[in-house]
Amino acid sequence: MPTRARCFVPASVLTLAIVLPATAQHPPAHPFPAAKPERLAAAGTAARGAQLVMLGGCHDCHTPKNQDGSIDFSKSFMGHPENAPLAPQVVGGVSTNMLLTAWRGPWGVTLARNLTPDKETGIGSWTLADFKKTIRTGVNPKGEAIRPPMPIANLQNLPESDIEAIFRHLVTLKPIRNNVGRVEGGKAGGNGGT
Ligand code: HEC
Prior knowledge:
Elements: H1 2-25, H2 46-55, H3 58-62, E1 95-96, E2 102-105, E3 108-111, H4 128-137, H5 152-155, H6 160-170
Antiparallel strand pairs: 1-2, 2-3
Helix pairs in contact: 2-6, 4-6
The structure holds heme C (HEC).
Heme C binds next to α3.
């Protein structure tokens, strides 16, 4: 046993000696700027809504991504861009597209909606009551049931002031005309092909 132990230790040290300098020369790139912690905004305000949409990860699906996967904030909340590719078919799995705006799963094909205040293609004609009802019930003003991966279950029991804050923030955004559409029954069509 002692002989084996003596052989093992030098071998590990040798491996580390080779690996460590290589890692030190190529530190992983740091993709994020330095953090600038914000002060807690007042309950129910658009400023608090801006903080809540960050916490809620809404951009993860409702805003297209850059090539490197970062969020393209110049397109905040435009939803799945008209005619962008949909998610590929993956047998036995759930898939998304490169922008994380289109999804495909056992529930069918879903596209993250336009939440900007554009009157025709976004939520510009919604009232606060419409927005609250949609989040609380998972059914939008058109009577459409909201499907996965929209996290209605995570949001539907939020305090009134949080839902109000999110809506007040969304309506301050730059309106973007983008007719996302809706794919029914799992069949891709009308929006970008398969
Ligand atoms: C994991 C992806 C994902 C995340 C995260 C997400 N959403 Fe969604 N959202 C969707 C998808 C997909 C739809 C469309 C579902 C459908 O067509 O049935 C949707 C639909 C909606 C709708 C309904 C819009 C309409 O016109 O009917 C609202 C409102 C909404 N999301 C708000 C939010 C808010 C606010 C957040 C953050 C707190 C959020 N979403 C986070 C994917 C997401």
